[in-house]
Model the fold of this input.
Amino acid sequence: MSWVEAKEYFTNNDVAILPVGSNEQHGPQNPLGTDHLIAKALAEETAKRTGVLCLQVIPFGVSSHHRQFWGTIFISPSTLKNYVKEVCLSLNYYGIRKIVIVNGHGGNLNALAESARELRERGIFVSIFQWWPVVAKFLPELFKPEERRHACAEETSLNLALHSHIVDMSKAVDETPRESMLQSEGVTLPLDTIDYTASGVFGKSTTASAEKGKIVLEVVIGELVKHVNMLKESKIEDLVQKPKV
Ligand SMILES: [Zn+2]
Done:
């Protein structure tokens, strides 16, 4: 898009999609870019189907818990929060008031939610979409619980459906994550991925398939399209923060 085309879009639209991901280990079979590549693909297809502008993907995220696995590039939550916030403020300078963040990495969520709250105070409404809860809800039979975790069959299947040439299934492994003795109900521990698994896989990945990935894609993109269309039709006056009572 040139600036002239951008002017045309921003003058006539107040919605945009921003994909955000991470660059972190996803087991021996998947590319480090898994989370940002999936976010980008979901966002771009949704943009095509809704006519809403999709921005470049932000590829780095909050992943320091994967650092012992080579090639993981991690930034702090405050860096991600501010980066995303400033990108959204730039969009707002051109008239965008509603933004859908397509988040490909769960570790980003707290930082993104903080950005969204701060932006709402400034009259910008940001929603955050994540694909895996959609799969759990609408396709509960497609994967077993041990196939749904980090770098397991669910995520690997999406990679196979989207870009199989950068997945090496001959290296896929199944590994049962170790449980910490300190883990009990109600307790959060500051552990890293390496504390749980030697391969980076948190369960079963060898059962991944492109066919399952395609089923996931259709359902997830369908839900994201619905959400974007609803946001498109919503009035910003109904979305901004309410005044004090
Ligand atoms: Zn991932």
